[in-house]
């Protein structure tokens, strides 16, 4: 290739990079939306729950007629319904009179005007504000005093004249953009230049490269180890547990189908995760209009098969050429791959993409170095950049490139014309990555979104990396023994392989340079996780390929490189101690996936003996043997098994235990089962948990009648009274106060209720609402009628909670034959503010959730429960405003994070206009099991939707003003 062709390649690549930079700041077409107070039928509140909390601008006008009709003090107009200490809104816009005759205008906690004038027009923009009367300016200033806006509220009587009363907010829709013609043209030209410079690199390779096979010669043939990998990956696709973020992904993707962009939905004021999160776009394209769990898991299934093919056909044999004829190598690789993939990468997170991207980058880089080709290196750069766009953990793929950089540099310097060709190809690849990063957003929007995500968090520093391993070693979901085993074996194998390589300088049967680069890339990749702003153990899923290779390498080292039994015993000791630490975790999974799972709450054990104890004993024994064998070599063969056998046994054991636990749970769980409903999608049933949910519209209907006969009257002593009339001690589920008993003045009290008759055909639970603080004791007694009177056959003690909450009991399971129930409560004096409240028992009268609210009605699904309710239509975030849902469904918490202002929840403004009323929720066939809680939105006052005006405008890609403002 001529010098001019090489320079042309460099020119094309640098042009592509420059065009990509211009593409990122190119103008876009942005949707606009403004919302006006509808006062056409009188003064009625309008909910305007802005997803960004603060508008781009607000304009309002009031007249003296409204102030004349205003009650003593109060607001003519407020953008929040929550008053501050003086009756004014703490951070919204408040126009009213604190005292008669004194008009005040406050915004964002700052007093803008105070005086006697009452015909006012207010305009607040992102950088300045002005208050005027007619043409006279009464006050003005600079600075950002935009208010928090949840709606238009007023304390005026509804019949007040609305002449001169108005308010309009312009919503912040900076993320609702589409590519302009200029941006599309730049993308086309940039992509063309990038492809051409890659072609130049390919032509350059034809003259200077050498032929090297990229894969194993038998890459197209099936091997025995393929079968367990494919079978288990397919099985886990169906029965595999949901991850905590599966619903996070499905809700974002489902909302994007209506809003036009993939926003945060539950956090960060609905700002996108750009420049990261490109895998959401994959799921957006894959999902279309529906997100059934089984269908959404198929991309991870395909990625698993691709990763296994690359590892078993390329990576392992390129690092371990001496193992080509060894039949055990693919089997060890299969065991390690499954142990690293299954606990982390079955769900809808980014780690499968990171794992596959990292392995593919390694394959391309090493093939480029071996074959002296520049095109694979350029493609590796492109793929590493694309992997980084999926999530910050994509740094692991970037590290592979950085570790290989010295070898690539030597290749460039030894080939004539390689430097400009490589520079051009790499620049063109980076340009393509920039196109992906900013395809749906601009530089200005990305800066604004990054700033708000940093402010709200989580945003850990690199020095907090220890918290990731702390979470891994806790007895919780993130520290399940399958996850621990994969990570601890990875670290142990890395340390052992590096130590042996340093001591031996070269390991027979391995490719030395590639092995050194792989070990360095693994160590640097683990270190690079420190710069990821979140510290979840999820991220170790990106190292599934590293674990596969290192287990094979350690097994090879144990066979070929570690000859002394004393050294082998010390290595076994390290592995056994890692196993003990791993097996001290449980098989805990998230939410419904944990039901009936073996060892979900305790470490695994056999005949009452913990496996961790056995592993610890072996580790200590091998440590002593390793020290002893340094001087006594004659008993070595009887005490030191092969290293690979121990590692493989540990990984097989953890994989089998996890799989067995999930299969057992699928078979034994009564009623709803997440694996069974996931499998039901194969026959077209995609609704998951939804058909099993039942709600109790009116709890009072299910109250039990007093049993007939002389069963004794209610006995109450020491001040336990009826009704329970304090709001904080009222029924959480809507029971009348007259069906509650309470003592809340610090005095002692007791209750022995009537016997209540249980219905003969009752299939639901018995529910008693209980709450209290101090030394209280509540017992629910089940009895049976006998000729001599009621006889107690079972007593159930209730755990007191610091708020009134329902306790559920299944008399069929706990008190067979019972036909009576009563409540016995005793409150002892403990402290002045102690209290105790109990309710009359009831057997709920339920209806299906679909009969209570149809699936087509908008619903806010909290992200932990969302993957189980994929037939429900989600409330949409579009036009800078949150759609008002008919119901909110959570996994048992009162407030979903999407409504929590502390998390930047874009639905938080709804709580200004609505209160959440729990609707008792049950799972069909599982009387006492909690799976979901339905909350009804009840207006705090009469409401009317605002008037909406929508439009489009072209904005600069650098426009990031005004900044997103968030206060907890």
Automatic annotation (TrEMBL):
It is a multi-pass membrane protein. It is found in: Cell membrane. Residues 182-629 form the Arabinofuranosyltransferase central domain. Its main location: membrane. It comes from the Bacteria. The chain crosses the membrane at residues 184-203, 223-244, 294-316, 328-344, 377-405, 417-439, 485-503, 515-532, 538-557, 569-591, 611-629, 638-660. Residues 1-20 form the signal peptide. Residues 30-174 form the Arabinosyltransferas concanavalin like domain. Residues 741-959 form the Arabinosyltransferase C-terminal domain. Keywords: Cell membrane, Cell wall biogenesis/degradation, Glycosyltransferase, Membrane, Signal, Transferase, Transmembrane, Transmembrane helix. Arabinosyl transferase responsible for the polymerization of arabinose into the arabinan of arabinogalactan. Belongs to the emb family. This is Arabinosyltransferase domain-containing protein.
